[in-house]
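User: You have something folded?
Assistant:
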Amino acid sequence: MFTLWGMVFCCLCQLTHSKKAISPINEGTGKCDTIQIVFYNVENLFDHLDDPKTLDDDFTSSGNHYWTKKRYDQKLNKIGQSIIHTSDWQYPTIIGLCEVENRSVLLDFINTPLLKAHPYAIIHHDSEDRRGIDVAVIYDSSIVESLDYRFIPVSLNDGYKSREIVYLKISLCEDTLHLFLNHWPSRYQGVLRSESRRMLASQLVKDLCDSITAHDDNANIIIMGDFNDEPQNKSIQNLTEYFTKEKPLNQLTNVMKDMHRDYGTIKYKGIWYLFDQFIVSNSLLTNDNGLCILEKPRIGVSNFLLEEDKKYLGKKPFRTYVGFKYNDGYSDHLPIILKVGFKK
């Protein structure tokens, strides 16, 4: 529909062993022509210490996962490696993360060897999720100015508290961008039985978008996260059907809905699912003067993030644990990346 989608979808890339310099976007140009946004479900990024307020006992040195400081440090470095490689050996301007335990973990993360030289700032809040896993945003403070942020609780009908939705309003490339970071309720109880939980989260985001566009017809919005649903599911359709004829730029488009099905972002019983997605306002697709999406987002399908799927054949994400068995991998999800630019 848009000519910018004519670009060829990225093929599988391989991790090379050569040392490559890591640099910020447009280093030395003084401009903000292109920025990269990465989202990554990092699969249980817990520290190795016990928090008596949460159900984190398995992720301690005496717990079922025998989660030691050494394994924790290895995990931090692997996540950094994955993100930097996904962004073509550049520092992403914005990194959205889910399944992180606390702010201390995020501080440890941005102080890993790969990231510590870059001026990253953190947006995080301890949610009421009983496992103690949260969502968070890390951003390049030399390019991004935080104007406002909020943590929207997702209270389910049975009283259970899910992960909060993070809203962040930023000034970027001489324009304003509204970001929503999500980790919606899981399918643990079954797809249909748990659907109403994700619909509740979806409606929260939809109402928030409504309030933004009521004040700004041209608002630039990016909704990203692990939705635990795919583009064709009701909770996602609830967002992308959001449309007013009088204000067509308010429509939200799932820019990953037609992505190649050889890979998703998570694999379960031999089937790939596209749970991790970017949804954007049409203003970012049609803008000739201001912020715009430069190309189709892609999945970080790097070979080192995959391992052999011996049971169902093919490949699957190289995760940290398989059950209680330490697998020394990265995550059960693959990262996704979106490039945003500024047209003058």
